[in-house]
Amino acid sequence: MRELEALVAHHLARLPLPRAPLTLVPRVMAAAEAWMARPWYRRAWFTWPAGWQAAAVVLVAAMAAAGVGILSTGWLAATGAWSSVAAGPGAPLERWVGELDAAAILARVVWTVLVEPLLPYLFTVVSLMCAACAAGAVALNRVVPGRMSS
Amino acid sequence: MTGADEFEAFVRRYQDMVFATALRLLGSPAEAEDVAQTVFLKAFERFDQIGRSDAAAGWLKTATRNACLNHLARYRSRWRLFSELARDEAPPAHEGVADSAPSPEDLLTAAVDLQALERALMALPDHQRVPLVLYHFEEASYQDIATALGVSLAKVKSDIHRGRLALSRALRPLGPVVP
Hints:
heterodimer, A: about 150 residues, mainly alpha, about 0% strand, disordered C terminus, B: about 180 residues
């Protein structure tokens, strides 16, 4: 078995490196030019301008927080509704309404305490980043096109 | 030198290495060219970081290897099925080179038909060629290969052995063997 391994390794090591076809370089350059022609927001996230990268992170975090808030509220409402149903047909409707009320109050508290205070800051940060990116994009438009076209 | 010229020089410098790695892993020139293009485009996106880096060759090799394995997993979902079925089709592990064939010692010293060997390598089924190429050309360990392919260590060893047996059958001396 070792003999076979040595034999195959010996001859495989002597194989010449296959040459790339002549079409590869033109294909790659055409693909690179097409990539450059794409607007920045249609490229990979890590190639976005830094301001937009940060804005995207903030946006995703805000959406995740909102999602968690909505889910927890929904869960509380569903739990309340289920416990009312499970209590049987004789369960008072008022209790079910009370559970819903509690869930709504909790949602309002989460919104007022956690989300609402952050909104002005979030709006300001995103607006500033938009302005910075717009300025950056204008500046880049003057510099970057020379990279691929020349 | 502009950015485009610099990148073109970069592609010309590494194109054979990237294409050869992809060709040997995929066994198809057309698919290898597609993967090579994808890898160079990824390199272009990060060209500011890797363009002048000493690690560019290593980065390209790793990116090519990963792209090929992803390509095989995505476009050849029959991989594992055939891999398992082929166990019975391949000759048993103890079956070596036929008696009439030159001995391994002879073949080690003789000039062999390398084109026939390359063709035999390309003709191997995916599940034998890929681990064999990873072992002999990419210098990956058996364990690394098993992890990368998501198969057992025993299967990797068995497939590589079967691949070597198939290749040894393609090894024929160009002239009479000199003792």
